[in-house]
Design a protein that fits this description.
By secondary structure, the protein is an alpha/beta fold. The protein is 45% helix and 14% strand.
């Protein structure tokens, strides 16, 4: 089955051959993905057919290679320690070796492997007829013969071909691509370790899927139109669930690393952290990839004009209105009517409460959310442009913590240069001191110290100093709804 789970042996997956990546990104589903992967390399296991060897020869070779691939001898080319297995610890065949005929067959298999120069062995000190330990001869020919006998491809060949595929992928990206920089680092680490990094798996088909998806992200970086996961998966892989089932978790981990280590420089390269479900959804949405179409909520006297000349008036929907991402992408302009202030609110529960209890008729209030996708960014930019044109003040109300400050900075930088913080200062922390929570995360403290001298965070210098001194922060929803 082409897209079913690829059968993997105990040592190495069978690896598709390498084929040049098309010069331009062209989505043709399953056919294109198979071409991207290349032909399966099942015929590259070796020159000597594995069928010429018996069950025990294959088993012994496979067990020794599993040890070898995790040894210093594999990583560095030599080692004073033997790559060995003890016969009494071969649990898979332990019961079989209780039988005299099977034990004789096993011993003959070991002797055959020794005659081929693949292994050597020693006898039990207490039983001169019983084999005690078997070890692999660490020479290139011997190791490759062991792979052939096991019916497997040498792991180093798999690694070399995969790094070549990474390099081919990089060649089809822009020179300054952040994805290319990430892949270049990965290729260097994989070569150095002679093993896959945590962003890839032992299943080469999944690895090629990850590369293809990264190539799509690079090609979509400027456009970032909303793409639903299953539709995109069908276009890329000919299987609507391949992305979700096979590579979604790895792609999220890659996006998390690229964002924090390459784009923002907030973490040292090689650092590891757990990515929550919400963070994963956010990382994908920031690239325009969503499970379902996004809905953008707001309330205020505005009307919008779409690219086909049609318009929509939302001023009568005083209890809240919404548009979806597809509509937002087609908005060309927004018009205010009697709007004297625009307020972005980060938290959903606070947004709902504010509409029902606090919002004035002359306010336009928008739910910001925990992240801003490309489509949402376009919508916010239309709002901000009209506010600028109309001379209307624009505020942002978010958590009094590093994440809240960062959302403010991004909104100000990307959409609204005149943005001002709302209820995010020292006074708010003091008034609601009963509801603050401890600032005990060392990474957050470090981030706050780092941005104290950043001009983008100038509006928060006093409150950041207060937070660090008193070790407190305030989540927006903790403010009581009086």
């Amino acid at each position: 089955m082409i897209f079913g789970k690829m059968k993997t042996e105990s040592v190495s997956a069978k690896v598709p051959g390498i084929q040049e990546i098309p010069g331009t990104f062209n989505v043709q589903g399953k056919k294109d993905f198979l071409e991207f992967m290349g032909e399966a390399a099942s015929d590259k296991a070796g020159d000597v057919p594995a069928e010429e060897y018996g069950k025990y020869e294959k088993y012994i070779a496979t067990e020794l290679l599993a040890k070898y691939e995790n040894s210093k001898a594999y990583r560095e080319g030599s080692s004073t320690r033997k790559t060995a297995v003890r016969v009494d610890q071969l649990s898979d065949i332990e019961d079989e070796l209780e039988d005299d005929d099977k034990r004789k067959e096993f011993s003959e298999a070991v002797e055959k492997l020794k005659s081929l120069g693949v292994v050597d062995f020693s006898y039990d000190k207490d039983d001169a007829q019983a084999i005690d330990r078997i070890w692999l001869i660490i020479e290139d020919k011997s190791v490759r013969d062991a792979y052939r006998i096991a019916g497997l491809r040498p792991k180093i060949d798999i690694i070399n071909e995969f790094t070549e595929k990474i390099e081919g992928t990089i060649k089809n990206m822009l020179p300054d691509s952040i994805y290319a920089a990430f892949l270049k680092d990965q290729a260097e680490q994989i070569r150095e370790r002679k093993n896959f990094t945590r962003y890839f798996t032992d299943d080469i088909r999944q690895n090629f899927g990850i590369l293809r998806f990264i190539l799509f992200l690079d090609s979509n970086e400027e456009n970032k139109k909303e793409q639903m996961e299953r539709v995109l998966s069908t276009r890329l892989f000919g299987d609507s669930k391949f992305f979700e089932r096979e590579i979604r978790a790895k792609v999220i981990l890659i996006l998390h690393t690229i964002k924090h280590e390459y784009e923002e420089g907030l973490a040292a390269k090689g650092s590891q952290s757990i990515v929550t479900v919400d963070e994963g959804e956010q990382l994908l949405a920031e690239k325009g990839i969503v499970r379902y179409p996004e809905i953008f909520e707001f309330a205020g006297c505005i009307s919008v004009i779409f690219d086909d000349g049609r318009s929509a008036d939302f001023s009568t929907q005083t209890y809240g209105a919404c548009i979806n991402a597809s509509m937002a992408e087609r908005v060309t302009s927004v018009t205010f009517r009697d709007v004297e202030r625009v307020l972005f609110i980060e938290n959903k529960s606070v947004y709902v409460w504010y509409l029902s209890k606090q919002r004035k008729d002359n306010e336009l209030v928008l739910y910001h959310g925990h992240f801003v996708s490309p489509a949402k960014g376009m919508w916010f930019k239309c709002i901000a442009d009209e506010a600028e044109r109309s001379g209307v003040r624009v505020g942002f109300w978010g958590d009094i913590d590093f994440s809240g400050f960062r959302k403010f900075v991004r909104l100000k930088r990307n959409s609204c240069p005149s943005l001002e913080p709302y209820e995010m200062g020292v006074k708010t922390l003091q008034v609601f001191s009963k509801f603050v929570v401890p600032l005990d995360n060392e990474k957050e403290k470090e981030h706050l110290r780092n941005v104290l001298t950043d001009d983008d965070y100038y509006s928060f210098r006093h409150v950041i100093n207060y937070m660090l001194e008193n070790k407190v922060r305030l989540e927006q929803e903790n403010i009581p709804a009086e």
